[in-house]
Specification:
The chain is an all-alpha fold. It is built from three helices and no strands. It starts with a helix and ends with a helix.
Length: 90
């Protein structure tokens, strides 16, 4: 029962999976750089405070990783696919 509810949430048109299926041409460099930097800054802050907040740390590691993933998709789309298209036209 719980598995089917989680699967329904994951496959929902507005579910968490949609962030990873966003077309690369719609990804903003500035927004993803901000997401990545914010995640890294809060990772640092969560380990400096006493007591260390490992929940905050793990959430922000995931946030930074998502930003890096989206940036890599955008860079690949902008530079690798353009390079391949230019090589085909020569």
């Amino acid at each position: 029962m719980a598995t089917s509810k989680l699967q329904a949430l994951w496959n929902h048109p507005a579910g968490p999976k949609t962030n990873f299926q966003k077309p690369p041409e719609n990804i903003s460099y500035l927004q993803q750089i901000a997401v990545t930097c914010t995640g890294m800054i809060w990772c640092r802050c969560s380990t400096v405070i006493t007591p260390k907040n490992w929940n905050l740390f793990s959430v922000n590691v995931a946030m930074a990783a998502t930003g890096v993933y989206q940036l890599s998709r955008k860079i690949k789309y902008d530079y690798v696919t353009e390079g391949e298209a230019a090589a085909e036209n020569e």
